[in-house]
Structures are given as structure tokens and as C-alpha cells.
Amino acid sequence: MSTPSPSQTPPPQNPPPAAAGGLSHAERQRLQQVFERAKKCLQKADYAYAHDLFSQCVSEDPGSLVYLQHFRANLAQMHPKAVAAKASNFKGLPGFGGGRAVVAKAAGKGDWSEAFAAGCKALKKTPGDTGVISEMGAAAGELGHSDCELYYLRWALDLSPQDLDVNRQAALALEAIGEFDQAIGCWLRVQQQRPNDEQVNRAINRLSVEKTIDRGGYNPQLLKGAGEVSMPHPSGVAEASARLKYDSPDQPPAEAAAAPVTLTEEQLRAAIDANPADPQAYAALAEHYTALGRLHDAERLYKKAYQAAGGGDLALLEKLEEVFLTRKRDAARVAEQRAARQGGPAGQKLAEEALREANQAEAEVFGARAERNPGDPRAQFEFGLRLKRVGKFREAVNPLQAARADKKRLAEVELLLGECFQQIEQHRLAIRSYEAAIAACPTTEWTDLRKLALYRAGVLAMGLRDLDTAEKHLTDLASADFGYRDVSARLDKLASIRKTH
After folding, report:
1. Is residue 230 helix, strand or coil?
2. Closest by alpha carbon to 447, among 480, 473, 474?
3. DSSP symbol at 250
4. What are phi and psi of 238, to 5 degrees?
5. Given this model, what pLDDT does residue 175 score?
6. 232 three-class SS
7. At which residues are the TPR repeats (predicted)?
8. Nearest 5°: CA angle at 391, between 318 and 346?
9. Pairwise CA distance, residues 471 & 21, whole Å
10. Residue 481, pLDDT score
11. Which of 357, 359, 353, 426 minimizes the C-alpha distance to 388?
């Protein structure tokens, strides 16, 4: 019996993991093998089978930008003349029109793998269905994968630059991560078609104010189509990177002309190919990806740079750690903002999980840094602070005690120690640390830290029935800020207790 060709062999049927959770090492290895098979099929022009394999990768790991880029590149080879699909143009065609609804229904149930699988299946028939693409972007955003969310939206805008719904969705996604300039640009494209829409005008005005308040984090490439994956065509001709062709109101030609000249992704890749043992070549491409918001790719390249350097370059290691932490923090921030906008227990649960993951990631990274720098009180402080955030109060004590060597932040350290001691019910040690924090604060300034230390000491002493100590600290606090929290009510209660004893 002859061996079936790849196009005749069905994709692996391993049960997909929950897309909202993390993949195990074994699952990632399995998925990477599927991905490598898909790339080989693409190179052999077996686009249909490659689509099925890339679909599996995208469905099971919707946070991987690399998988998504290759999925789109293969789809472009399958349908080189794909255009934006409007429902009116395809009315009556089998399978068209329900793709977006299927994706939304599965996502609404939290069945993320099924949602992305449905989207991939729909795009195989109608690759220009911007409704499906934007719905997959919304699902990626729900999971906190902001880089993939923006990639889907950029893809939809490639197909239909003036689409009102996609521009609105892109504006909200960009606002959620603080990209106010580009969010305004999306709203301006909506305004061109809806000049009398008050909601659009208010959004532009509000974002203009927020932009003035917070000018940091502008990344003009997120929805400009730059940095696409460059896949080899079977004939050997390199596929051109897909780029947005519409005019961008938020980036006039004069500003674009004034931008500094930088190496392209192709040039940076060529530098790696020319000298694969040079860690700086990988680091340069990683920096390029970081500027584009492609944090997964940047993290992968920094790992290669660190390995190429022999695992001893601490500067590269810290850059790798920072990209990893930035990705986790961004995911937590986006999830929190989305939960605040949309409400509901599902969104809140995702936000809480994303925050837990970000805090745990910080604890691990700063723990490694503290281990590398045992005599650095700042490194010990950062580690102790992160341990406290994840609820490891007992473990946080030792690094925080080591951080006392930094006299400039002694008051803050003692306050944190007091809170840790209180959590593990070492109340006398907690009182001692709170009072040390008070003593370390400048006596001429009523800082928030000094007020909080007095409050913590007074409340704890009151709970321990040490009325004299409680009255002293709470009275000192009330003399400076009588409206601080419930200090006045606590002083009244102290007076009442003294009358009855």
C-alpha cells in the first residue's frame, strides 16, 4: 500500500487545550511540530493542507503571533486575489454569512479553541471576510493577546480600510493599550463617513485630551502593516510584505519624511543569516520587534541572542526579562480595561487571572535578579515587594530585611515588613516595623507613607488592646489629617472603651 501524500493525511487530532490557559511544554512541542509540517506544506504549494495545519496552531495557541502570520501568509497564497467580502456580494453562496456568528457564539461560551477553529474554517472559503477576521481579533483581545488582536484588525483594515465597524473596534483596542494617536486616526476615518456622529466627535475630543495627558508609548507601526512575515513562494520569489495602502490622517507626509532611517526587517534577518553566531544581530531584530509591539517575537529573538552569547550576557538577559514582563503587564492591563468596559463575571475572571500571571511572572524574574545580586538592596527590595504581591508574606520577609541596607527607602521597607508580619500573625514584630517606618519618615513632612504607617500601627495596636500605643499613633495621625480613612471613628471608639474599663 502506498503512503498517502500530506494533502491526503488528516491533521493530527490531539485534543486541543483550553486556549485561555497556558500550554504545557509537551503541548507546545507537539504544536511546534505541527507548525513545522505546515511550513513545509506551504513551501511545496500544498496550501489547503497547510491551511488545516496552521489553523490547528492558531486555534490551540491564539496568542502566538508567529502562527497567525504564517496562517495569513498561506491564505494569501491560496487566494492571491482575495478582496474584502461583503455579505451582499456573496449572498446565496454555501457557507458564507454564518462564520462570524459561529465565532462569536463559541467565544461567548468561552470555547476559545472552537471559536478560532470556526474562524479559520470560514476564512478558507471566504478569505476576505472582514467580519470573521475582526471577530477573531475580538476573541484574541478577550484573552489578553493584544498583539494578535491588533494584527487581526490590521488585516481587516488591509482589506477594507474604511470599514466603520473595524475602525471603531481598532480605535477601542488601541485606546485600551494607550495608543491614543492611532486610536484618533481610526476615529477620523469613521468621522469622514459620519461627520455628524456626536459619539465619534466626543471620542476624538476625549482621546485628544488623554493624549495630552499621557504622551508615552506611541508606536506608529501597530496598524501600519509593517513587520509582516516574509514567506518564500514555491517558485523562489519572496512574497512581499502586506502593508496598509490607505492614507493615515494621524501621520502627515512631513512627519513620515522626518522619521529616522532604520534597518528593515529583511536587512536585520540578513545580518543574522550572515553571522548566526553574533548575539547582537539577534538583539537588533528583537529591538525592532519590540518597537512594533511584536513582543512574542522579540522574546524569542532575545532568547536566541542570549544563547548565542553563551548564556553569560546579563544585559541581554535583562532585556529578555523586560520583554517577557512587558508582555505579561500589557495582557493584564488590556484584560482589566476590557473587563471594566464590558462588565460581566467572565471578563472579570480573565482580568484577575491575567493579573495573577503578571504578578507571578514578576516574582520569578525579580527572584532571579535577587539571586544574581545578593548584595544589592534594591534587587532584594524588588523581590520582596513581588513576593508580597503574590501573597507569599513569610517568604518576603528575608529579602525585605536585606533591603534595609538602602537607607533612602527604609521607611517603605519597614512598612512592607510590618504588613508581612501582620499577615503571618507576628503582631509584635509588625508593630515594631510600623514604628520603625514612622521613625524613618521625615518629621517635617506628612507624606502618605507616614500617614499609612501611623494608621497601620494604631489599628493593629487597637486590635491587640494596647490602648496607649493605639491612641498615640492615631492621635498623631488625626492631628495632621483628621479626615484620614476612619481615624476619627477609631478615636471615638478608643474613648468609649476607656470609659467602660
Report:
1. coil
2. 480
3. T
4. -65, 135
5. 80
6. strand
7. 411-444
8. 90
9. 50
10. 92
11. 359
Percent of the chain clearing pLDDT 70 (strictly above): 81
What per-residue confidence (pLDDT) applies to 235? 29
CA atoms of 235 and 486, how far apart (whole Å): 75
Measure the CA–CA gap between 470 and 467, rounded to whole angstroms. 5
Burial state string for 210-248 with b = 16 or more CB within 10 A and e = fewer than 16: ebeeeeeeebbebbbbbbbbebeeeeeeeeebbeeeeeb
Question: Any alpha helices (H) in 143-229, and if so which ranges?
Answer: 146-159, 164-176, 180-193, 198-213
Q: In this structure, what DSSP letter does residue 238 have?
A: B
Higher pLDDT, 25 or 69: 69
State the cell numbers at 122. 470560514
Instruction: Specify the pLDDT at position 92.
Output: 37
Residue range 63-82, pLDDT digits in tens: 888 899 999 989 988 888 77
Q: Where in the chain is the domain with CATH 1.25.40?
A: 1-8+15-86+95-160, 265-372
CATH topology assigned to domain 1-8+15-86+95-160: 1.25.40
Please state, in angstroms and as integers, the Cα–Cα distance from residue 381 to each residue in 73, 392, 429, 436, following that order: 46, 14, 19, 17
Confidence (pLDDT) at 98? 65
Copy the grid coordinates of residue 401: 530585611
265-372 fold: 1.25.40
What DSSP line would sit under 61-85, residue for residue? -TT-HHHHHHHHHHHHHH-TT--PP
Residues in Cβ contact with 496 at an 8 Å cutoff, skipping those fewer than 6 apart: none
Query: Average pLDDT for residues 169-177, to the nearest whole number?
Result: 84
Cα 326 to Cα 147, 181, 290, 359, 488: the distances in Å are 12, 21, 10, 12, 42
Looking up cell 508580619, which residue turns up? 421
Q: Collect all residues with Cβ–Cβ distance below 8 Å to 397 and sequence separation of at least 6.
A: 384, 417, 420, 421
**Can you say whether the dihedral through the CA atoms of 452, 455, 460, 461 is positive or negative?**
positive
pTM, whole model, 2 decimals?
0.50
Determine the Cα–Cα distance for residues 280 and 285; give it in Å rounded to an integer: 9
Would you say 451 and 479 are in contact if contact means Cβ atoms under 8 Å apart?
Answer: no
